[in-house]
Specification:
Helices cover about 25% and strands about 25% of the residues. It is an alpha/beta fold. It has an 11-stranded mixed sheet, with helices on both faces.
Length: about 325
Amino acid sequence: MTATRFQSFRFQGDTSGPKLIVLGAVHGNETCGTEAIHALLEELKSGVLKVKAGTLTLVPVTNPEAYDQRRRAVDRNLNRFLGPKAEPADYEDSIANALCPLLRDHDVLLDLHSFHTPGDPFALIGPKNNQECLEPFAFQERETKLALHLGAKRFLEGWMEVYENGVRQRKASKQPSSAHLLSTDYGVGTTEYMRSVGGYGVTYECGQHHDPEASKRARYAIDQTLKLLGIIEGVPIPPPKDVELLKLVDVVDRLDNGDTLVRNFNSFDRLKKGEKIGIRGNGAEVFAESDGFIVFPNPGASIYAEWYYFAVESDRSMWI
């Protein structure tokens, strides 16, 4: 299957240094990163800004057809089940076959996103350093330092663990899910793939899709990253001290067109144990199993796709 390929722009410094890649519009309707990258490109091309060390690669629109249609995806979510495919089965597979080699060629990834419900910006980080099979990792300190400098005060961990839990639930319930939903590989997106090939990266959710501040936050995050890594001149602004780290612990799928959330939740709305979250199409009620937070609520989720996530306060420190 042939895809409209994305464009990438590469800038090389005069001295050696980290190799950074910045992605926009992995989801076609999330354009804040695209706007920030285009503005940066103009400054680099005009000479207003100069890469002094290392390598900077910019991909303003990672998913071109979805972007042209202002849709999240064409055939499927590019930021799930990401990896090279010998026989690409859909449009996003074809994009992945071009994107994955590019990611492998870099050390650090900044992936810029936005979300559909109102809320404050936040960043997703990977696991602690470990040698376990689910997501082995060795750059916890560097990745955490990068995340702290992006401008967010809220952070999320536990992505791969929650997908492992989701796979376990789907297998136990015998939902008629497609094969990729029954594999923890479904949780692999850009940053997870980056970690799997020896790098590190952060997904930064810059704000609501059409919030004009989101593109400003995206540009701030890029500038902070470039300075932190020494790719351009300058010293990054110190990170805020009053930060919050939450841990994703569950993902709940929508199983029927009649499944309905009881109210218009925003990400990170606080929930009490026993609080009603939704009603299934068959009338069954869904409750919070503990105190925590609803994350990425999606009342219009496709059947057998993620309806919402649940997070709790993490006992991990962001200050290493």
